[in-house]
Amino acid sequence: MAIILGIESSCDETSASICIDGEIRSNIIASQAIHAKYGGVVPELASRAHQQNIIPTVDQAILQAKVSKKDIDAVAFTRGPGLLGALLVGTSFAKSFALAMDVPLIEVNHMQAHILAHFIDQPKPAFPFLCLTVSGGHTQIVLVKDYFEMELLGETLDDAAGEAFDKTAKILNLPYPGGPLIDKHAKDGDPTAFKLPEPQIPELNFSFSGLKTAILYLVQAEIKKNPNFLAERMDDLCASVQDRIVSILLNKLKKAAKQTGVKDIAIAGGVSANSGLRSSLLAMGEKYKWNVFIPKFEYCTDNAAMIAIAGYHKFLKKDFVGQDISPLARMHV
Ligand code: KG4
Ligand code: ZN
């Protein structure tokens, strides 16, 4: 039997999870509300909140899984990418835990872990599969050949998809993080109400900064004509923005599927919680006869269950690291 403790602290979620023989038994997430009033994650505040949250979060994960600290066989932690100060908290905790309990230490790449979240529940994708990983910091199309053998086929040249949602939300005077709020308003809006540009970016890469500027100019021009524009047209604006972000993402995914011939298609990361992306991907999957894999909501945004499952697969290979390990703000899949 293998019991893995997973730790996630790369951004503004402190999370701990227990995985027993590949099955997730707990996934505790402490979110940090403090960033909302600043309109984005403040790194220094995130590190402090991680420091306060980490021990209670781990205690709760162990309690909920009904295991004892001394039964844990290994500790897996997010090494990167992410905010360095935030990563240091999880890394230091994991190193101390491993030292104190005399168990192996496993480093996990956060972007790989978002993808490996697909191995938590059934149905699991078969290798090779394509994954569109869309989060607050990344937008990537990845060819997943094996658990830890991944090839980056395309990525954003500027903003990430989550950033496009969050920065648009800021223009629309919605609080941070704006992605879920745009999603909510979009449900009652008309996606064809406002015409927004689709950038012409080569290969399988993305760009979202032009879209953000187009929205800013549109909103500024409309507010000049009608000061109540935002309040009156919020739903239509959100629906139009969401529709365009989703079409940019899915058009590239379609191109990647055509180029590779791969028909197992997955999405991962915080933006994969978006209802427009989920339903459009399902429709596209039906049209092109893809096997579509969409994670459960709790495994889309940052969580330690994905770190624990990635850790479990490394544990099976005895892929451990030493106490001299340090976090990395930048890491590739
Ligand atoms: O993966 P994640 O939790 O953290 C990072 O690793 O970045 O992703 C967070 C991002 C934020 O930009 C947030 O606005 C976005 O995911 N997000 C959404 C939705 N839920 C979360 N974007 C659009 N629609 C949603 N429902
Ligand atoms: Zn993430």
TrEMBL record:
UniProt entry keywords in alphabetical sequence: Acyltransferase, Cytoplasm, Iron, Metal-binding, Transferase, tRNA processing
InterPro entries the record matches: ATPase_NBD, Gcp-like_dom, KAE1/TsaD, Peptidase_M22_CS, TsaD
Annotated catalysed reactions: L-threonylcarbamoyladenylate + adenosine(37) in tRNA = N(6)-L-threonylcarbamoyladenosine(37) in tRNA + AMP + H(+)
Cofactor: Fe(2+)
GO terms, biological process: tRNA threonylcarbamoyladenosine modification
Domain Gcp-like: 23-308
Binding-site positions, substrate: T133, V134, S135, G136, G137, D166, G179, D183, N274
GO CC terms of this entry: cytoplasm
UniProt-listed Enzyme Commission number(s): 2.3.1.234
Superkingdom to which the source organism belongs: Bacteria
Name assigned to this protein: tRNA N6-adenosine threonylcarbamoyltransferase
Organism, as annotated: Sphingobacterium zhuxiongii
